[in-house]
Amino acid sequence: MQDTATTTKVDVSTTVNGQQRSASVEPRTLLVHMLRESLGLTGTHTGCETGQCGACTVLLNGQAVKSCMVLAVQAEGQEITTIEGVAPRGTLHPIQDAFWEEHGLQCGYCTPGMILSSLSLLSENPDPNEEEIRHAIEGNICRCTGYQSIVKSVQSAAQRLQRGDTPKPIPSGD
Ligand code: FES
Ligand code: FES
Predict the structure, then answer these.
(1) What separation in Å is there between the alpha carbon of 120 and the centre of ligand 1?
(2) 105 and 157 part of one domain
(3) What is the pLDDT of residues 41-69, one digit of tens each?
């Protein structure tokens, strides 16, 4: 709990996933904590909180950033995309579909960060080679997959986006 008698809070207004959102936070609050705790966007994961693992990756004005390395106040007036915002609710973005089809995840802990780092890459380089994909995700640690299936997922996502795939309903699992 925060001591409101001694802690000065600041209001931060941002655009998150296309919506105006604001939160009252301590000046030292990290963006990842504002997203998760103040805005309820728990799809952004926390791991090391020292910029090493990439679990907290979001897009800030379209660029992948580690949200544990950004103060919430630095996001004032900026545009943020979290994993919740990559596709309309109930649908999978083509890159999410690609990760699903190509087994680009196991436990899924790294996956939101992997996807956002990959989307940042694909927005700048729609047809990356394997080396470029591995370079783009080198700041994202996966303890499960061995990375090969992630690279294949990103390659598949690139093909899907180039042919104009759009979000599709999440499979029911039946
Ligand atoms: Fe941000 Fe690990 S939690 S890089
Ligand atoms: Fe488990 Fe990447 S799927 S950490």
Answers:
(1) 17
(2) yes
(3) 999 999 999 999 999 999 999 999 999 99
pLDDT digits over 2-39, tens only?
Answer: 454 567 999 999 999 999 999 999 999 999 999 999 99
Nearest of 36, 27, 40 to residue 76 by alpha carbon: 27
User: If you measure from the C-alpha of residue 60 to the centroid of ligand 2, how many angstroms do you get, rounded to a whole number?
Assistant: 23
Helices (H), 106-147: 111-124, 130-136
Indicate the residue among 65, 85, 105 that finishes a domain.
85
C-alpha 155/C-alpha 168 separation (Å) is: 19
Give the count of domains, the chain.
2
Tell me how far CA of residue 19 lies from CA of 14, 72, 114, 121, in angstroms: 8, 16, 23, 24
Q: With a 6 A CB cut-off, is 16 part of the ligand 1 pocket?
A: no
**Which of 85, 106, 132 represents a domain boundary (last residue)?**
85
